[in-house]
């Protein structure tokens, strides 16, 4: 079975020849915000989840020229037959994969009515029109808007989960996450095992959550434009020396640790810093203490009470696990 990021050499079949999944019903097609794909790329267990064969199939529906210039990291180009028809990746792979994401240049809607009507009007003149188009026109060189949607609708016959179409396509994603662009095509298994993970995005371009190692990485801070940090661990971090940009709440990695009393201070700090730039909340492993604080801030910012979120209990906040 082919895996994401391990090279473009996957078995392919036309839509009519690929065998549908056992359920038979179409999985559907939905738009995917850039932040959702970004977070999917950052997931890990013991190792980055990109190393798992059945985690993510990221497919580039743009032209070969566009793909060669740059593409989203670990993305594969959707292959074409000698006659120019796009091919469907191996149905066995698609039936097992958790996320199937397709993107083109800048599609932002699932509505293809305008594109389809335009194609009908062109009819058989399509090939000659392409030949007569000014070579300086990007439209003649780039994949048409809506290409990703058309591919997603053919892929939905083979996946167990809805096929995701990246909203805004490569243009929007690369504008938000320029550091996830690459020209690299072939990824070895050990490279995926050591894939550089970034903090997950909680609020687009504003609030991030990560671990201690990520908080000490200068390049990550630069790429995400982090302007302030909230450290929820016992170990101090000295990356942000500027006064007022770093809040350290020393909390032990223990089930009995009390974060509740620090929530007002933390929420006030994040509120003040978000007006100035992005904030990173982190703990040792980026699992429990940081997620507890992040959830508390979201409840604070949206004015949700704890009673509305879960049954009242004295240990709801304190017993949140370790990390």
Automatic annotation (TrEMBL):
Domain Tyrosine-protein phosphatase: start-end pairs: 198-316
Domain of life assignment: Eukaryota
GO MF terms, alphabetically ordered: protein phosphatase binding; protein phosphatase inhibitor activity; pseudophosphatase activity
Ranges where the record places region Disordered: 1-20, 111-143
Residues of the Rhodanese domain: 39-179
InterPro entries reported for this sequence: Dual-sp_phosphatase_cat-dom (IPR000340), Prot-tyrosine_phosphatase-like (IPR029021), Rhodanese-like_dom (IPR001763), Rhodanese-like_dom_sf (IPR036873), STY_interacting-like (IPR053272), TYR_PHOSPHATASE_DUAL_dom (IPR020422)
Pfam families: DSPc (PF00782), Rhodanese (PF00581)
Protein name: Serine/threonine/tyrosine interacting like 1
Protein source organism: Anser brachyrhynchus
């Amino acid at each position: 079975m082919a895996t994401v990021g391990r090279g473009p050499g996957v078995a392919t079949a036309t839509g009519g020849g690929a065998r549908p999944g056992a359920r038979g019903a179409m999985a559907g097609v939905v738009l995917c915000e850039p932040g959702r794909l970004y977070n999917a790329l950052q997931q890990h267990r013991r190792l980055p989840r990109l190393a798992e064969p059945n985690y993510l199939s990221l497919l580039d529906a743009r032209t070969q020229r566009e793909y060669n210039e740059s593409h989203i990291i670990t993305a594969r180009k959707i292959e074409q037959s000698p006659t120019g028809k796009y091919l469907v990746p191996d149905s066995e792979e698609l039936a097992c994969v958790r996320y199937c994401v397709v993107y083109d240049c800048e599609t932002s809607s699932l509505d293809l009515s305008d594109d389809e009507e335009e194609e009908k009007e062109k009819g058989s003149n399509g090939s000659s029109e392409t030949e007569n188009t000014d070579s300086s026109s990007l439209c003649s060189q780039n994949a048409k808007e809506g290409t990703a949607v058309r591919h997603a609708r053919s892929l939905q016959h083979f996946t167990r989960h809805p096929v995701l179409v990246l909203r805004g396509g490569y243009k929007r994603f690369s504008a938000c996450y320029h550091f996830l662009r690459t020209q690299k095509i072939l990824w070895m298994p050990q490279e995926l095992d050591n894939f550089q993970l970034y903090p997950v995005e909680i609020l687009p371009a504003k609030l991030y959550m990560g671990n201690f190692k990520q908080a000490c990485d200068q390049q990550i801070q630069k790429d995400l434009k982090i302007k302030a940090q909230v450290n929820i661990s016992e170990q101090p971090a000295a990356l942000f020396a500027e006064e007022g940009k770093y809040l350290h709440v020393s909390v032990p990695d223990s089930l009995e640790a009390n974060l509740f009393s620090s929530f007002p201070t933390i929420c006030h700090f994040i509120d003040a810093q978000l007006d100035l730039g992005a904030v990173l909340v982190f703990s040792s492993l980026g699992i429990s203490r940081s997620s507890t604080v992040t959830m508390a801030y979201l409840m604070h910012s949206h004015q949700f009470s704890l009673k509305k979120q879960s049954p009242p209990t004295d240990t709801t906040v304190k017993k949140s696990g370790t990390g």
